């Protein structure tokens, strides 16, 4: 089980060393912006590293929405980030499940996801696994509650689609953590990556506010139980910079009974 952290993109490998991390996740462009990433000068070095790399797509991407002015550029941007992520040897591109606006039909949102994968296939494929991440908030989200996730996976059918489970988002989104991995795997058949985060917000608060693993409103022991059950690589997206994340990684290694 490789354990790492979400880090600043300037020099992800140095960030990995500073945290004693075996994996890093980073952005390839402004997470609040619509820019397609430029090729990275350190692409060869990143591809050759023995640190596992994951890329997080910008937050502005929402391929589910019925709003054309968001959905169409979202598709293109997702594909652009996928090829840029593949170019640095990333093992997966993480993207949030997205949502439809109040009053819009969620079924159309799921179908927009299907069209996104069809569009990518027509364009030569994503080039790496795309991992859809569960989200914490919203009443019309595609991947907050497991019943919605099941409908999303029904629609995506034969497409190759991965899943990233965020423990903070699940808890704040209102899904009980006990037994969650089994319930998720019954739907998706897989968990490709864990975002291991405690939550500042209460259960079912809908708040996307990450906390360090031994802080927050989730019992750390329960957090470890979920992570162990998932058996997937782990990325912490926790506060406190190098020190905070280094401590979270060390905590997990100790709890999971292994050293690195
Ligand atoms: Zn996350």
UniProtKB/TrEMBL annotation:
<dbReference type="GO" id="GO:0006284">
    <property type="term" value="P:base-excision repair"/>
</dbReference>
<keyword id="KW-0227">DNA damage</keyword>
<dbReference type="GO" id="GO:0003906">
    <property type="term" value="F:DNA-(apurinic or apyrimidinic site) endonuclease activity"/>
</dbReference>
<dbReference type="GO" id="GO:0008081">
    <property type="term" value="F:phosphoric diester hydrolase activity"/>
</dbReference>
<comment type="similarity">
    <text>Belongs to the AP endonuclease 2 family.</text>
</comment>
<dbReference type="GO" id="GO:0003677">
    <property type="term" value="F:DNA binding"/>
</dbReference>
<keyword id="KW-0234">DNA repair</keyword>
<keyword id="KW-0862">Zinc</keyword>
<dbReference type="InterPro" id="IPR036237">
    <property type="entry name" value="Xyl_isomerase-like_sf"/>
</dbReference>
<dbReference type="InterPro" id="IPR013022">
    <property type="entry name" value="Xyl_isomerase-like_TIM-brl"/>
</dbReference>
<feature type="domain" description="Xylose isomerase-like TIM barrel">
    <location>
        <begin position="15"/>
        <end position="254"/>
    </location>
</feature>
<dbReference type="GO" id="GO:0008270">
    <property type="term" value="F:zinc ion binding"/>
</dbReference>
<dbReference type="InterPro" id="IPR018246">
    <property type="entry name" value="AP_endonuc_F2_Zn_BS"/>
</dbReference>
<dbReference type="Pfam" id="PF01261">
    <property type="entry name" value="AP_endonuc_2"/>
</dbReference>
<keyword id="KW-0378">Hydrolase</keyword>
<dbReference type="InterPro" id="IPR001719">
    <property type="entry name" value="AP_endonuc_2"/>
</dbReference>
<protein>
    <submittedName>
        <fullName>Deoxyribonuclease-4</fullName>
    </submittedName>
</protein>
<keyword id="KW-0479">Metal-binding</keyword>
């Amino acid at each position: 089980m490789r354990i790492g952290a979400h880090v600043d993109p300037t020099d992800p490998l140095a960030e990995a060393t500073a945290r004693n991390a075996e994996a890093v996740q980073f952005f390839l462009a402004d997470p609040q912006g619509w820019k397609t990433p430029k090729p990275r000068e350190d692409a060869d070095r990143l591809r050759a590293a023995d640190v596992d790399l994951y890329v997080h797509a910008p937050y502005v991407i929402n391929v589910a929405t019925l709003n054309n002015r968001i959905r169409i550029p979202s598709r293109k941007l997702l594909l652009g980030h996928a090829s840029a992520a593949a170019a640095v040897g990333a093992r997966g591109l993480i993207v949030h499940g997205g949502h439809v606006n109040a009053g819009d039909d969620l079924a159309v949102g799921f179908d927009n996801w299907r069209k996104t994968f069809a569009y990518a296939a027509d364009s030569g494929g994503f080039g790496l696994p795309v991992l859809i991440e569960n989200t914490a908030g919203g009443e019309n989200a595609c991947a907050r509650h497991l019943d919605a996730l099941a409908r999303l996976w029904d629609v995506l059918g034969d497409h190759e689609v991965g899943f990233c489970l965020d423990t903070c988002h699940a808890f704040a989104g209102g899904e009980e953590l006990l037994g969650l991995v089994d319930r998720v795997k019954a739907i998706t058949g897989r968990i490709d990556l864990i975002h291991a985060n405690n939550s500042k917000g209460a259960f079912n608060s809908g708040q996307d506010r990450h906390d360090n693993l031994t802080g927050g409103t989730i019992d750390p022991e329960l957090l470890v139980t979920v992570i162990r059950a998932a058996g997937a690589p782990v990325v912490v997206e926790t506060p406190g910079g190098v020190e905070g994340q280094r401590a979270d990684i060390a905590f997990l290694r100790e709890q999971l009974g292994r050293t690195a």
